[in-house]
Amino acid sequence: MEDWDAAIAEVVQSLKVPFDSHLVIRELAHKNQRRYIDALASMSTDAPFQQLHSSLGRRIKVVCEGLGLTGRDHQSFDIFGQRSKCQQWVALAD
């Protein structure tokens, strides 16, 4: 999943802080549609969205922390409109 890091960094740097991981995933899917669909198709589970989004979430954490952001527990709407847990990313001074 490290091959997503550049795309994640591009999305993260385009967003206004604070933002959450669900928003990053939505933007990644929108800006990288073919790649996103291919990644979903490669998942070996009956819950490919959950598996892919969990993997992307771990990479988002690495990228955000590398950019000096810190994560806080947060709830927002996922790609299916379900309210679920994720990380909200804020500047360390917030």
Question: What would you report as the Rg, rounded to the nearest angstrom?
Answer: 13 Å
Alpha carbon gap, first and last residue: 29 Å
Mean pLDDT: 96
Helix content: 40-55%
For the record, the count of structural domains works out to 1
**Secondary structural class:** alpha+beta
Separate helix tally: 4
Beta-sheet strand percentage?
Answer: 15-25%
Shape: globular
- Major beta-sheet overview: 3 strands, antiparallel
Strands in their spatial order, largest beta sheet: 1-3-2
How are helices and strands ordered from N to C? HEHHHEE
Total number of strands: 3
> Which stretches are low in confidence, meaning pLDDT under 50 for 5 or more residues running?
none
Question: What is this structure's SSE topology?
Answer:
Layout: H1 5-14, E1 19-20, H2 21-31, H3 33-42, H4 48-66, E2 69-77, E3 83-91
Antiparallel strand pairs: 1-3, 2-3
Helix pairs in contact: 1-2, 1-4, 2-3, 2-4, 3-4
Structure description:
Helices cover 53% and strands 21% of the residues. The chain is α+β, with helices and mostly antiparallel strands and 94 residues long. The protein has one domain. The protein has a three-stranded antiparallel β-sheet with strand order 1-3-2. A hairpin with a 5-residue loop joins β2 and β3.
